[in-house]
């Protein structure tokens, strides 16, 4: 049985291939080769741990994971809410007294026992979130975002002109490839 799928948005970031590979959906911009941040039951464990730390509702969980990943990953509501239902059906969480219409959940004794049995795996999962946050911090700086935005605007403006030839497209591609090679060789 498959549990919450939790998809992320990194293209070739800190989690490359392996069991985390696969088609990406949701998350932030990205494109080809997105990697899942959590497989099957991994998101289930992360949600259970966060709920055991403090009673929470679905939106809190999404924001907390996004914060732990430095904004690099936010599971979709379409993954989180069915996983919460599953955790409840498994007797690992229960609805907790809440204010307003949002359902808050708390871990049951069975849920806490389950977490104790999975302590080593949980350490690895939260280390993965920290690694994602570290990667995002190193690669998502303001100067890079500004330069990428400039490049995107210039390309859109230049390539939308009627006089763009095949030669121009090849020249632009060569310039981008050259910049990529220079960046790759940087120490």
Would you spell out the secondary-structure blueprint of this structure?
Elements: H1 40-53, H2 58-68, H3 77-89, E1 93-96, E2 104-107, H4 109-117, H5 119-139, H6 142-159, H7 166-185
Antiparallel strand pairs: 1-2
Outline the structure in words:
The protein is mostly helical and 187 residues long. Helix content is 57%, strand content 4%. It has helices spanning 40-53, 58-68, 77-89, 109-117, 119-139, 142-159, 166-185; strands spanning 93-96, 104-107. The chain has a two-stranded antiparallel sheet. α1 packs across α3, α1 crosses α5 (119-139) and α2 packs across α3.
Summarize this structure as a short list of keywords or feature phrases.
disordered N terminus; about 55% helix; about 190 residues; mainly alpha; two-stranded antiparallel sheet; elongated
The end-to-end distance, rounded to whole angstroms, is 46 Å
- Show unreliable segments: 1-34
* Large-scale geometry: elongated
Tell me about the largest β-sheet. 2 strands, antiparallel
- Tell me the radius of gyration: 21 Å
Helix percent band: 55-70%
How would you classify the helix and strand content by structural class?
mainly alpha
Number of strands: 2
| Count of separate DSSP helical elements | 7
Return the string of H and E elements. Answer: HHHEEHHHH
Arithmetic mean of pLDDT: 80
The main sheet orders its strands as 1-2
Strand portion, in percent? under 5%
Structure in a nutshell:
With 187 residues, the chain is mainly alpha-helical.
């Amino acid at each position: 049985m498959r549990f919450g799928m939790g998809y992320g948005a990194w293209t070739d970031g800190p989690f490359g291939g392996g069991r985390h590979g696969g088609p990406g959906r949701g998350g932030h911009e990205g494109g080809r080769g997105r990697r899942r941040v959590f497989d099957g039951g991994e998101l289930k464990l992360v949600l259970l741990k966060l709920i055991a730390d403090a009673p929470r509702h679905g939106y809190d969980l999404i924001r907390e994971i996004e914060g732990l990943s430095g904004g690099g990953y936010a599971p979709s509501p379409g993954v989180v809410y069915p996983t919460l239902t599953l955790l409840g059906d498994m007797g690992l969480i229960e609805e907790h007294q809440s204010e307003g219409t949002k359902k808050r959940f708390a871990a049951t004794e069975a849920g806490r026992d389950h977490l104790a049995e999975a302590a080593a795996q949980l350490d690895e999962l939260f280390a993965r979130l920290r690694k994602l946050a570290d990667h995002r911090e190193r690669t998502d700086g303001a100067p890079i975002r500004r330069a990428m935005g400039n490049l995107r605007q210039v390309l859109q403006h230049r390539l939308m002109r009627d006089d763009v030839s095949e030669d121009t497209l090849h020249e632009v591609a060569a310039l981008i490839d050259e910049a990529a090679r220079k960046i790759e060789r940087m120490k």
